[in-house]
Structures are given as structure tokens and as C-alpha cells.
Design goal:
Layout: H1 15-20, H2 37-51, E1 55-59, H3 67-79, E2 83-87, H4 91-97, E3 100-103, E4 112-115, H5 118-156, H6 175-199, H7 224-237, E5 242-246, H8 254-264, E6 270-274, H9 278-282, E7 288-290, E8 306-308
Parallel strand pairs: 1-2, 5-6
Antiparallel strand pairs: 3-4, 7-8
Helix pairs in contact: 5-6
Length: 315
């Protein structure tokens, strides 16, 4: 029996859309099986957009897309009349498209929901951290005051403590009542102190910083993603004079990406990085050299490297 024919590219994708998502050079009759995984993903996405569905569920839709294709996708999604639910690590995409953000990064209180785009999500997280810091500081002040009060009051009613002449209220028939009042104050302060110590607000985690810090335990065996995170942690803990990074935000959650970016701004040495992360590149404070081909274009003439001056840091 002859083998079944391989399906060909037959989706109703217009030439303009195909070019925008990076498929313009593919012949229309090329077999689907000969396309790479990234090309098949872009083709499926282009065909989906052409149908303009009433609702969309997207998982990492900007994977394998260059800047122009990602911008085209964002424009198309903003113009759709129906609902769009997308799971994505692409912060630039989340900022351009989202009207609500649900942060699924593991947290004590579970998923966090904020209205607005990714920038609004970050602003709300900063405000929440400020409230957390204030709440922690206020509670620490109350704890310190209660400890001092309990110590002083307990000292006043300590057994065998002599009474100087100026403490006249301790003498005579009222002494028992005064002692009882003081004892109640001690018990009340001690009870409140125990409640606060049991349920006290923990200090928020420190921000990631480039600094020397010995690692006491060797890293355990883990996945490639885990090992990548450990490698980045080592670089943050022991910053070299020159740091070369290739796609440093790959396989990191948005929260860790934000922390890494903040840490990079505290290092003592020079940093050279190659990245497709649009959010990272927009916030990059140094010089930028775009490496591209004439076909994918934002480089220089004939795809030559194109250098752009740096801009003021945004992290």
C-alpha cells in the first residue's frame, strides 16, 4: 500500500499575514511535515487569527515570534471582539494585551489577581510590598513595647522586692487590690505578646542583589530549568568583572525575571547579554546592537548589525 500523502500547507493564510509572522518565504505547497516546530506554530497561529474566533485560549502565543510578528499578534488580539485567555511568560505581551492579570507564581495566599496590564500589576505589587513593610514595622514596634511593658510591670510585682517610702500606694489595705491590678496588666500584656509572636507578620523577602554570598550547600540534581536558575543565582551571588548572558530570562517566571533585572542594575562589572526578551531590551540601560537579517529587518542595511545608543535605566 502506498504511503499516505503528507498534508500540505493549505490553511487560508493571506500573504500579508504569512509574511508578518515570518512565513512569507515558504512556498504555498510545502508539506507541513517539512516545517520546523516554530514554523508550524506560527502557521497555526496565523490561520487562527484569520478565522477571528469569538473566544481564544492561547498558551505562550509569542514563542518563536520575532518582534514584528509579536506586535502583529498583539494588534490582532486587541481588535478581537471576544474574550482572550492567554498563559504567557512574555511580559511585553502581557503589558500590551492584558486587561486583567492572574499571577500563578507560587505564593502563600495562592494566585494573585490584579486589574489592568502587566505594568499595573507591577505597580500594585510594589504598593502591596510597601503595605507589607509598614505592617511588619508597626507590629515589630508593638512587640517591642509589649516586651518592655511586661518586663517593667513584672519587676514591680516581683516577690521580695522592697518598697521605698515614696511608693505609698503599696501600703495598707489597698496593697492587695493594687497588686491584683498590676498582675492583670502583666497577664494581659503577656497574652497579647504571645498572640503577636505566634501570628506575627513575616518580613518581606529581600530583593535580589549582586553581592558576595557563600553557598553552604551543594546544588542537588534537578531539571535543566532548575540548574539554569542555580547558575544564575551563582552569578548573582559572585558577580564577575564581566558578565556574558545568553537569553538569561528563558525558563524564568516573570517575578524572577523582574528580580534578575533589578539585580543586574546593582552589579559592579560590565554586562553583555543577548536576548529576544522585548521587555528586558526596552528596559536595558546600555548600548544596543541589533543582529538581524535583511529579511527579518530591524537591523542595518542588508541585515548588518545596527547599534543604538543607550537610554536612561528603567529598573
Amino acid at each position: 500500500m502506498p504511503p499516505a500523502p503528507t498534508p500540505e500547507v493549505s490553511h487560508p493564510v493571506g500573504p500579508e499575514t504569512a509574511t508578518t509572522v515570518g512565513l512569507g518565504a515558504l512556498p504555498h505547497g510545502r508539506a507541513l511535515g517539512s516545517l520546523s516546530g516554530g514554523q508550524r506554530g506560527r502557521l497555526a497561529l496565523a490561520a487562527l487569527l484569520m478565522r477571528r474566533p469569538s473566544a481564544l485560549l492561547l498558551d505562550e502565543p509569542t514563542n518563536h515570534l520575532d518582534d514584528g510578528a509579536a506586535a502583529f499578534l498583539e494588534e490582532q488580539l486587541r481588535g478581537l471582539p471576544g474574550a482572550v485567555v492567554a498563559a504567557s511568560h512574555d511580559r511585553a505581551f502581557l503589558d500590551a494585551v492584558c486587561t486583567d492579570v492572574i499571577d500563578l507564581d507560587p505564593a502563600v495566599d495562592g494566585p494573585v489577581h490584579h486589574g489592568g496590564n502587566y505594568s499595573a500589576h507591577l505597580a500594585e505589587k510594589r504598593a502591596e510590598r510597601e503595605r507589607w513593610l509598614r505592617r511588619h514595622a508597626e507590629e515589630q514596634q508593638e512587640l517591642a513595647a509589649l516586651r518592655r511593658s511586661a518586663e517593667v510591670t513584672a519587676h514591680l510585682v516581683a516577690p521580695g522586692r522592697g518598697r521605698p517610702d515614696n511608693e505609698k500606694m503599696g501600703y495598707g489595705h489597698r496593697s492587695g487590690r493594687v497588686q491584683n491590678q498590676i498582675s492583670r496588666r502583666v497577664r494581659s500584656a503577656t497574652r497579647r505578646l504571645r498572640e503577636l509572636e505566634r501570628d506575627q507578620v513575616a518580613a518581606p523577602p529581600e530583593a535580589l542583589r549582586l553581592r558576595h554570598a557563600p553557598l553552604a550547600q551543594p546544588s542537588a540534581e534537578g531539571t535543566l530549568v532548575s540548574l539554569r536558575r542555580v547558575a544564575l543565582a551563582l552569578l548573582v551571588a559572585r558577580p564577575p568583572a564581566l558578565l556574558l548572558l545568553d537569553e538569561p530570562t528563558n525558563h524564568l517566571s516573570p517575578r524572577l525575571c523582574d528580580a534578575l533585572e533589578s539585580a543586574l542594575g546593582t552589579g559592579p562589572g560590565a554586562i553583555v547579554l543577548a536576548s529576544h526578551d522585548r521587555w528586558l531590551r526596552r528596559r536595558w540601560a546600555g548600548r544596543e546592537i541589533r543582529l538581524s537579517t535583511a529579511e527579518s529587518g530591524p537591523g542595518g542595511p542588508d541585515g548588518a548589525p545596527c547599534e543604538h545608543p543607550g537610554h536612561p535605566p528603567r529598573w
